[in-house]
Amino acid sequence: xxxxxxxxxxxxxxxxxxxxxxxxxxxxxxxxxxxxxxxxxxxxxxxxxxxxxxxxxxxxxxxxxxxxxxxxxxxxxxxxxxxxxxxxxxxxxxxxxxxxxxxxxx
Length: 106
Known about the structure:
Layout: E1 2-7, E2 14-21, E3 26-33, H1 36-44, E4 47-49, H2 62-70, H3 78-89
Antiparallel strand pairs: 1-2, 2-3, 3-4
């Protein structure tokens, strides 16, 4: 199982994304969070075939389609974290942290 903790930012929510490979094509996705919008992803996604529509273009990705339907805020980093966790779980990427840091401008 691959587990990713996301501190989402100004909303104050933290989400734990868990992805478990079930076989060569299917993964189970579970998001643990106090955010109700993200909780609704569990009903929509649950078990998915990662070979169909996960790594497609943004508008075609099942993850981003779910985000479009369920989230009010386009700046939520959790959809990207779901995709990264799937990539790591299926051995398509190495587990490497992603960081976004604000810097004061000159």
